[in-house]
Amino acid sequence: MGDEMKPDLMQLHRELLLGNISSVALTKQALDAIASHQKAGGAAFTQVNAKTALAAARQLDAARLYPTPLAGLPLTISDGFDVQGQVTRAGSAALQSNPPASQDAAVVSTLRAAGAVLLARANMSEFSHSGLGLNPHHGTPLNPGDPARVAGGSSSGAAVSVALGMSAAALVADSSGSARIPAAFCGLVGFKATATLMPLQGCLSLSPSLDSVGMLAHSTSCCSVLNAVLTGGWMPAHVRRAQPPDLQRRRLYVTEDYLAEQLDPAVAQAFDTALTRLSKAGARIVRFDFPELRRISDMNAQGGQIAAEAWRWYRARLEGEDGGRCDPRIAKLIRQGANQSAVDYQDLLEQRRMLQDVAAHRLSMADAWLMPTVPILPPTLAQLEDDDAYTRLNRLVQRNSAVVNLLDGCALSLPLTSQIGLSVCGLHGRDTHILKLAAGIEATLAKAEGE
């Protein structure tokens, strides 16, 4: 893929407005890259919309109308969102016989109205239920930096599509890290919004109380643009990009219990180096204890909220004639919900509320909460051949990111290396603040890296 797909969304938008590039050219480049990827055996996509994407691009170019920074840009949509006229498979073989969607998911409709070129459907972990990104039905998207390793999940195909320049950005869902884990493993920026910030109508849900809209792109600026368009907050004045905020005296909280356990040495070193650089830039690194997070392991012993809520929706499918077509590992995770009673589920909700109250108190003075996005490097495919290792590593990979969903917060993962991420997190409704602060952290770390 050419370098024209590498700049951030605002840069591409300006090039389109100036007539230096066309939507058709960008779309053709993306389709050429996809064709090369698939010819080489790549598995990033479940469906490519070549004809409709080119038609949309031609229409935009003919009108010379690019009203938002997404207009004319080829984007990837996770296979879990409804796209009118297409079957929503959610990475599964069991849903292939479903009828095509009668309308777009709410956020897909917003992207279409904004002029985005809906290029392709991205492969994913079946039903979004894994942080590893494996898919036995449609093939497993591989890590762009090391094909022996996973790309992370559940949005593995979306991450690969952006990392390899096959799309400008990607729309995904996030229940326990589906945007941030593959962002960390693939050297991208991934943002998970507060759950209620954007509607999930038309998204095949894994866990309604934990699901949220997410996105993958090359920079914090790109995620800010996507967030603004999807929430109706985009204004033409945003073309004049604001400078990243100064980090002087910003209070960046770090907890060394639970979230810092079992860190790979490379992750620990990258995280510590980032904290040192932020401190030198004037930020205040505030270390605090959050021992209550250890309760999460007990809360998830029987699958937690995700299993309880997923079982309610997927039970009929797993017990029906198509149940045998599901990935046995994913089916096993979902079936944990069958062992939970109504009392168990209510207890989980109460424990979640208690953790949210504790978090509100402990983080009341924080500008952001920093943590390694994933405690370890991307596992190898060979490591995951064993079922016990798969279960253990899947749980560990999702551990840190899932905390933010449980606390009903928002978070953005920045790349520290091509396979290690730093998460900038905030509590409910702090999305705009976190995006702005993350831009300052991103700029500070980039400057320090270049010195």
What does this protein structure show overall?
- The structure is a single chain.
- By secondary structure, the protein is of the alpha/beta class.
- The chain folds into two domains: 3-239, Amidase signature (AS) enzymes, CATH 3.90.1300; 251-298 and 351-450, no CATH class.
- Helix content is 40%, strand content 14%.
- It has 14 helices and eleven strands.
- The chain has helices spanning 9-18, 23-39, 50-63, 106-113, 156-163, 180-186, 220-230, 265-280, 295-299, 304-319, 328-335, 342-362, 387-406, 431-450, and strands at residues 45-48, 74-78, 117-122, 169-174, 189-192, 212-217, 251-255, 284-288, 368-372, 410-417, 420-426.
- It has an eleven-stranded mixed sheet with strand order 1-3-2-4-6-5-10-11-9-7-8, sandwiched between helices.
- Helix 2 (23-39) runs antiparallel to helix 3 (50-63), helix 7 packs antiparallel against helix 14 (431-450) and helix 10 packs across helix 11 (328-335).
- The chain is globular.
